[in-house]
Amino acid sequence: MNAYNTEKRINNLYTVNQLVGGQVQQTKGDAIVNYPYYYAWKNNPKRITLYGRRCRVIARLAMNSVIVEFENGQQECVSRNALRKYKNDSGFSDAT
């Protein structure tokens, strides 16, 4: 990846943070990265590994799906219905 693409990537991360809002969770380069959602489904082996992990939306796709990025940098295509918003940093936003 050349220097131009790296700078563009950092700017994209900063733009996503500005659109999503919420509290600052992590920084990458000069950009502030926010992870305002967590993955809430755990009804099969793959989803159990994703359950409870903080993430942010990278792109919204067709058929109510999204590409999310988890705090460790892993990206997955998941249902938007599987995401819940954190109310605060003390825990999950729903009772489950």
Provide a compact summary of the structure:
This protein has 96 residues and is of the alpha+beta class. It contains two helices and seven strands. The protein has one domain: Roll (SH3 type barrels), CATH 2.30.30.
Strand-helix topology:
Elements: H1 3-20, E1 26-28, E2 31-33, E3 37-39, H2 45-50, E4 54-60, E5 65-70, E6 75-79, E7 83-85
Antiparallel strand pairs: 1-2, 3-4, 3-7, 4-5, 5-6
Care to describe what's here?
The structure is a single chain. This protein is an alpha+beta fold and 96 residues long. It has a single domain (3-85), classed as SH3 type barrels (Roll), CATH 2.30.30. It contains 2 helices and 7 strands, in the order H-E-E-E-H-E-E-E-E. The chain has helices spanning 3-20, 45-50; strands at residues 26-28, 31-33, 37-39, 54-60, 65-70, 75-79, 83-85. The protein has a 5-stranded antiparallel sheet, with no helix packed on it. It has a two-stranded antiparallel ribbon with strand order 1-2. The termini are far apart. The model is unreliable at 1-25 (pLDDT under 50).
Task: Offer a few descriptive terms.
single chain; 96 residues; alpha+beta; SH3 type barrels; five-stranded antiparallel β-sheet; two-stranded antiparallel ribbon; 7 strands; 31% strand; globular; disordered N terminus
- Main beta-sheet strand count, sense and barrel state: 5 strands, antiparallel
CATH class: Mainly Beta
Low-pLDDT segments, ≥5 res: 1-25
Count of strand segments: 7
Strand content: 25-35%
The global form is globular
What is the CATH-assigned architecture? Roll
Distance between the termini: 42 Å
Measured as a percent range, the helix fraction is 25-40%
The secondary structure category is alpha+beta
